[in-house]
Amino acid sequence: MEFKVKCEPIEKLECKDDVTYRPNELSLSAEFIYPPSTHKKNLSDLINKSFGMRTPNFLIMCNFLTMIFDGEDHKLISFDDSTWSNPWIPCNLGLPIVTSLGRCLVHSITIDDDRASIDSTPKYFFDEPKKILKIILLEVENQKFYQISQNVIIGIANDLPSTLIIHPFEIKNN
């Protein structure tokens, strides 16, 4: 395993999101907005800042879906996807039981690269009346689900992101 993804339980949901779907481009994106960091600066941080250096992003790619992790703790800051190659299957969906509120982090990175891949093709399920979009990255049992922002739930199994659920999800035809 080159990396592990975990959700660190939190007491209060601190992250907001901006989820956008552009139907004319078949493009889906989500940006996670965190409050200002309470991370105390140490000498290393000050030196890095003075030289314009920062902790690099880490990318996890699953076909055309890319998850971006950033910051001192490598927290999930966004994902984007070009959905043109994968049809959305209309279906009746429910929301999973959420284990807890969480902050999604990548850790135990043991590769000398800034990216890794999940060898899978995401599957998209959409329940328009309930406004639920479910993206299955990996078909696995025993997922734990975490609410990571006001509209996004992530499923984690075997230290990997396995499902993304956006609710409420609306297609806006601009």
Strand composition percent: over 45%
**Overall mean confidence score, pLDDT:** 85
Parts with pLDDT < 50 across at least 5 consecutive residues: none
Report the span from N to C terminus.
42 Å
Total discrete domains? 1
Q: Residue share in helices?
A: under 10%
Characterization of this structure:
With 174 residues, the chain is mostly beta strands. It has one domain. 5% of the residues lie in helices and 47% in strands. Strands 1-8-12-13-14-11-10-7 form an eight-stranded mixed β-sheet, with no helix packed on it. A six-stranded mixed β-sheet has the order 2-3-6-5-4-9, with no helix packed on it. Strand 12 and strand 13 (152-157) form a beta hairpin. The longest helix has 8 residues, at 43-50. The radius of gyration is 17 Å and the shape is globular. The mean pLDDT is 85.
Write the layout of secondary structure elements.
Layout: E1 4-9, E2 16-22, E3 27-33, H1 43-50, E4 58-62, E5 65-70, E6 75-82, E7 88-90, E8 98-107, E9 115-117, E10 123-127, E11 132-136, E12 144-147, E13 152-157, E14 160-166
Parallel strand pairs: 4-9, 7-10, 8-12
Antiparallel strand pairs: 1-8, 2-3, 3-6, 4-5, 5-6, 10-11, 11-14, 12-13, 13-14
